[in-house]
Amino acid sequence: MRSVHKTKGNSLLVGQMPAGCKMCAVGSKMVLFVTGVCESACFYCPLSQDKAGNDVVFADEMPVHNDDDILEELDAIGAEGAGLSGGDPLCRLERTLGFISLLKDSQGYDFHLHLYTSQSDADTQSIENLHKTGLDEIRFHPMTDNWSAIETAVSLGMDVGIEIPAIPGEIKSLKKTARRAEDIGVSFLNINELESSETNFSSLSSLGLRLKNMGSASIAGSAEVANELITWSARELESISVHYCSAHFKDAIQMRNRLERRLERTVREFEERADDEPLLILGVIRAPFGEELDGKILTQISKVLESQFNVPSNQMNIDLPRRRIEIAGWILAEIAEDLRTSVKDGDLLEIGIAYEYPSWDRLQTLFDPL
To answer: CB 230: neighbour CB atoms within 10 A?
Structure first.
C-alpha cells in the first residue's frame, strides 16, 4: 500500500504532485482563460455569467485585448508558468497555439504550460500540434467513453492527467476512471472538491446537493468522496498519482500566494499593505454609488490636491477606469474635512480609506468613510 500524504489546506496526495500544481500552490502560475466557449454542458460548471459561453480572454482577472496584456500580468505576479483554461481552449485551437508560442518565445523553454480540456476525443492532429508547439502538460475532463485523445497524448510522451470533481454518490465512477487512467499510462488524477457558484447553484440544488455550511461554497459530501478515493487509490493502484485539491487550498493558500506575489511587485508609493492579509490600503475620492466623476472633474480635484494641499504627484493618482482619485491614506485622513470645502460639490463626494486586493480588478473588501 502506498502512502497518503497530507498537504496544505486539507488536501491529500498519493504519489507525486503534478508540476502544474506545484507552481499553483506557491502562486506562480498565471491562469490564461482562452475562451468561455465550450462544447460540454457540465451541470457543475462554476464559470461566471460574463465568461460562460462568451468568447473572451482573461489573464487572471485582467481582460486581455492584446499580447501585451498577457505579458503585463505575467510580470505582475512573477509567473513561472501558466495554465490555459476555459471554457475549452481546444474550441479555439489556433488561438491556443498562438498563446503557447507567445509564452514559450517570451518566457523561455522552461516556462511550464498546462492546459485543461474536456475533449478526450479530440483528433490526433490537434494533440500533436499542442505537443509540437510546446505544451508541457495536458489535463482532460472526459465527457465520453472515447479517450482517444488521452491515449494520443500519452503516446507522445506528454505529461497527461485527468481532472474531475468529487461528486457525492459517484465513488464507483471515480474508481472506474482512476483504474482506466492507470491502465493506459496517465500520469496523474486530480480530484477537486465540488463547489457552488452563482451560476451552478440552482443545478446543484435541483440534484439534492447542498452546501457544507453557510460559510462555505463547498458541497457537502464531496470531501468525503475524495478521501475515500484517495484511500482506495493508495491500496489498489500502483503507479498513477492521485491528488485531492480542497476548496480551502484553492482559496486560502493558492489564491493568497498569487495575490502576495502580485502585491510585492505592483504596490505603489502611496499604498500600504494590511498586516495579516494581501490587501492594499489607500485613500480614495470618488462619486457616490451609482454615479461617477468624469475626467475633467478628476483633473480639477487633482489640481486642488496639488496646489492647495501640496500633495506630491507620487502620493496620488487619477484612476480613470475606476473614475476616482487614489491618494496616500495618511494624507487623505488629514485633509478630508478641508477638501470637502475646497472643491465643487465636495460634500457629495465619497472620501475614505479603501482596502483592496492587488488583483487587476482591485476587489474592494472594505471602504471606511472619512
So the answer is: 21
Written as nine digits, the cell of 182 is: 492507470
Phi-psi region of 72 (alpha: psi -120 to 50; beta: other; left: phi over 0): alpha
Task: Give 12-31 pLDDT, tens digit per residue.
Answer: 999 999 999 999 999 999 99
Among all chains, which residue has been given the C-alpha cell 480635484? 301
**What would the pLDDT profile of 337-361 be if each residue is shown by its tens digit?**
999 999 988 899 999 999 999 999 9
- For residue 168, give the C-alpha cell: 457525492
Count of CB atoms situated within 10 Å of the CB of 267? 14
CA distance 45 to 141: 12
Prediction pTM value? 0.94
For the chain, the residue count is 370
Asked whether the domain spanning 269-369 has the same topology as the one spanning 5-264, the reply is no
Alpha helices by DSSP H, the chain: 19-25, 67-77, 93-107, 124-133, 148-155, 171-183, 201-206, 222-236, 247-248, 255-266, 295-307, 329-340
> What is the CATH class of 5-264?
alpha beta
81-86: strand order across its sheet? 5-6, 12-14, 241-245, 188-193, 159-166, 137-140, 112-117, 81-86, 29-35, 58-59, 62-63
Q: How far is residue 75's CA from residue 164's CA, in Å, rounded to a whole number? A: 30
Measured distance CA(131)–CA(152) in Å, rounded: 10
Domain boundaries, the chain: 5-264, 269-369
Q: What topology is assigned to 269-369 in CATH?
A: Alpha-Beta Plaits (3.30.70)
Task: Please say whether the beta carbons of 57 and 86 come within 8 A.
Answer: no
Tell me the per-residue pLDDT of 81-94, one tens digit each, with 9 for 90 and over.
999 999 999 999 99
Q: Is residue 251 scored above 90 in pLDDT?
A: no
